[in-house]
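Help!! Second protein's tokens look totally different from the first
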Amino acid sequence: MLEEENSEEEFDEEIDDQNFEDVTEVVDSLQELEMGSDSDESLQMDDYSAEDIDGEKESVQMSRQWYKRIEVDLWKTQMHMDTIGIRQQDQYRAQSRQFTASMKVIGDINFYSYSAEDLGLPLKERKRPQKVTDYKEILGINETFWKSRDPESIVYKQAQKMAQDYDPAEYAELLKRLVIKTFTQLKRNKKKEGRAGRWRGTIEESVVMSLNGMFGENRGKPRPFFFLNYPGYRYRLALMRTNTIIGDRYMFTMPNPKTGELTTFRIKGRRFTPGKDFKVYNAETKQKVAEIDDRMLNIGGRMTIRFRGEKEFEDLNRSVVFRRTLIMFAIAVKYLKPLNQKYRKIYRALNKKKKYLKELRKAEKALDPVAIDEVKTKYAEVQKQCKMIKSIMVTNSELTLHYNPRRIRS
């Protein structure tokens, strides 16, 4: 193992001494950040508006609620009341600018709680929690960042800019990015009062941070990283997959806005279960505080979140940020497999450059023009199929996630 590490270091030193001007097919100057195709979407990603301020007040009111169970249902078909009717999308867009033109409703979220009388009783004496009938949420995916095979999507158009190097259909698969948001249901009461169409939260994949984690492991294991934003909460949360020998483990840390105290939680995948099940622990006390259960036999994809019902967990269960983070993670579970596959492909494609440079350098040392052309021809086809790439690109919607909030503004 030590010999292998030394050989890699020696090879890296040799590459550092190499003149890269002859291998511009792989090593370019800095990318031009000419990415205007998604500018309209980017400007709306997380802007606050009047309805979001109202949503902040409602979020405070919701913190008084205590839920025992939350069910996240990703639909298999689109025959649901929230998606029927040509005016549905326009109505959601009218309620919140967070609902962009490329947003598609793909599921709903239902809440189950104890009655006020039952909450005062010991846990074993309470009746079954009942479904909340006056509150419901829907969830939507921003398809322009995810549907990589759609020629009209942002990621496909971005891939077309690199058509001289890559097959756009293949490269677009590597550019896709998960952006999901939740909103209150459009339904109102007869006086048109209520929380119709309010933005409730966003989970957004960060390619930059995912690559950082993956290459940090030096083994190419996928490390999906997500940012989470909520109305009324001034901080952006980070949710990331961390290193494990077996199974999955995700982490997030919540800052208390009033005291600055931090609380870290661990979401640990359960092994040897038929679905994708997780247990949620307070990482500091090692106490299990919730469970996320994948209903594998459900046709679409239903995840059930269950919270501890004991008295000592009541304050935690009333935390809107804690509940919301588990909801957003439960939604993302369905997409973890394709995301992991994407990052494995990216890692292999980026590392392929090392083999190419080694073969090319060998041919150049031999002063063999035929061998040099053979190497370039061979890897030109490999690159076209995206089995080797110069670099992975991101669009404006990703770059705006990483703006320096303390940068000097003109």
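Here's the second one for comparison:
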Amino acid sequence: MGRVSSPAQSGSADPAALGADWLEICRRIVAAQRAIFDEVRGSVARTVYEGVGEGGDHTLVIDRRCEDRVFAELETLAAAGASFLAVSEERGEVGFGSGGEVRVVIDPIDGSLNARRTIPSHSLSIAVASGPSMADVEFGFVHDFGADEEFAATRGGGACLNGEPIAAAPALEHLEVVGIETAKPERIIPAASALAGEVYRFRSVGSIAITLGYVAAGRFDGMLGLRPCRSVDAAAAQLIVREAGAEVAFGEGSLADAGLGLEERFPIAAASSAAGLEKLLSAQGDSAAAS
């Protein structure tokens, strides 16, 4: 796992970029970021802003430092001859080599509020795609720094947690545990009302990528986003969910309709079964209509 070798990739999808050892690259980035978190301790030290990133959010210095470690690895890969387009929350879209169809979609810290407040659950999320949509993602990697857990998947190769295969939970008549993300209070009440009798408990982790990883690992029966997410938040984890046998939806469109560009925004939900996903999508619609 970690190298993409699908013969279906064509033309401008650079085989040097797709065939890189992405798992090892991601693990090196994790080690470098861990050192940053060890160095910058406490909420005060982590709440230092440097401006607004290309994704539209206020950028913390720690966000930029973590992103710099990602780009150092990408620059090394490009120096070895690979061509690709990086899509990152802070820097936006950056071409390497001759560009081409390969996308590397990066959220250096998914769960920035958690990281800033020293809540352990935040993650690195990296996806590698052979084209411009969620359907084209070939490799997905999420590292949860709180639990020190690694979720990874290759398209057609299954999903793993710390190197061991994982599978979504068996389908149940009712959803026992559902993760809620982007959970503004005014959106929770209508969603909770719509799911009364259908969901036993809600949990909120504070990282879309980690929550989707929990669906893939069978810890959660579903995940419900209560406001539109960005491509960088979900590109890697949605592949992990699908390779673990669960269902994921980006609104009413197909995976091919969900683009990887930084400007993309879409509702997201996932569940261990199609029936469970339909319940969550219905509640998502009720929440959006009420807000």
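Reply: Different proteins will give different token patterns, so don't panic. The two ends are 42 Å apart (CA to CA).
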